[in-house]
């Protein structure tokens, strides 16, 4: 009887629920809902000793470690293993999923969570500060459309990577 209990516990742990700190387009429920087909519980949070940069030629931001800076965002809770794989695919090769320590704004609770950190720490295309409110006004509508196309592509085995989907979507507008 014990072995059944053990296997259930192991299965439950392997299908663990994750927490992910989001700081850019994934703060918008509209984008998350398209990707995950639901809106997970979210709590406002701060990531210390990081900076959120704008990226030349992109409408989404990047974060990198920078002493004495901080990034505000949200922690999405209850992310399943398959949902984490969707987020990995969405963040594509440009980002690395890393464990980071955040502080929840409401409770001051410290948590270790995943965050997608820009892979190229010396990228010359990073500059300034990225602004969520400006992004919502200027880019969110098109970004949600691009994300819908990406999510549909994910259903197919020959799906385009997100960067390719992003570039083809935004370049078609410029023609």
Write a structural description.
There is one protein chain. By secondary structure, this protein is of the alpha+beta class. It has 6 helices and 6 strands; from the N terminus they run H-E-H-E-E-H-E-E-E-H-H-H. The protein has a 5-stranded mixed barrel. Mean pLDDT is 87; it is low at 1-14.
Task: Provide the descriptors you would attach to this structure in a database record.
single chain; 175 residues; alpha+beta; 6 helices; 6 strands; disordered N terminus
Short summary of the structure?
38% of the residues lie in helices and 33% in strands. It is built from six helices and six strands, in the order αβαββαβββααα. The protein has a five-stranded mixed β-barrel with strand order 1-3-2-4-5.
């Amino acid at each position: 009887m014990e072995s059944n209990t053990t296997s259930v516990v192991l299965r439950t742990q392997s299908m663990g629920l994750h927490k992910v700190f989001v700081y850019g387009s994934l703060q918008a429920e509209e984008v998350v809902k398209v990707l995950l087909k639901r809106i997970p519980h979210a709590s406002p949070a701060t990531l210390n000793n990081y900076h959120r940069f704008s990226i030349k030629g992109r409408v989404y931001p990047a974060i990198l470690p920078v002493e004495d800076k901080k990034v505000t965002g949200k922690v999405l809770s209850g992310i399943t293993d398959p949902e984490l794989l969707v987020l990995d695919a969405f963040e594509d090769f440009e980002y690395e999923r890393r464990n980071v320590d955040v502080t929840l704004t409401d409770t001051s609770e410290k948590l270790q969570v995943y965050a997608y950190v820009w892979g190229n720490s010396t990228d010359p295309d990073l500059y300034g500060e990225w602004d969520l409110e400006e992004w919502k006004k200027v880019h969110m509508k098109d970004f949600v459309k691009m994300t819908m196309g990406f999510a549909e592509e994910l259903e197919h085995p020959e799906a385009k990577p997100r960067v390719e989907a992003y570039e083809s979507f935004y370049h078609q507008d410029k023609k």
